[in-house]
Amino acid sequence: VDHGTAFDIAGKGIANEDSLVEAIEFAVQMAAAKSNP
Questions:
Q1: Structurally, how many domains does the chain consist of?
Q2: Where are the alpha helices (DSSP H) in the chain?
Q3: Chain segment 1-37, per-residue pLDDT in tens
Q4: Which entry of 6, 8, 22, 36 is 20 to 30 Å from 30 by CA?
Q5: Stated pTM of the model
Q6: Do 19 and 2 form a contact (C-beta atoms < 8 A)?
Q7: pLDDT at res. 2
C-alpha cells in the first residue's frame, strides 16, 4: 500500500508506479470474477 505524496521525489522521474499498476490489475480481476460467477 502506498502512502504519502512523495514531494521529495516529485518531478525527478524516479517514482515507481508498479504497486499502482498491480492494484489496478487486481481490481480488474476482482470485477471480472464478480460479473462471471
A1: 1
A2: 18-35
A3: 567 788 899 899 998 889 889 999 999 999 999 877 6
A4: 6
A5: 0.64
A6: yes
A7: 61
Cα separation, 23 vs 26, whole angstroms: 5
The amino acid at 12: K
19 and 28 in contact (C-beta within 8 Å)? no
Q: What is the domain extent for residue 5? A: 1-37
HSE-CB for 25 with a 13 A CA cutoff: 6
Cα distance between residue 31 and residue 9, in whole Å: 33
Task: Give the DSSP letter of residue 4.
Answer: S
Rounded to whole angstroms, the Cα distance separating 34 from 37 reads 6
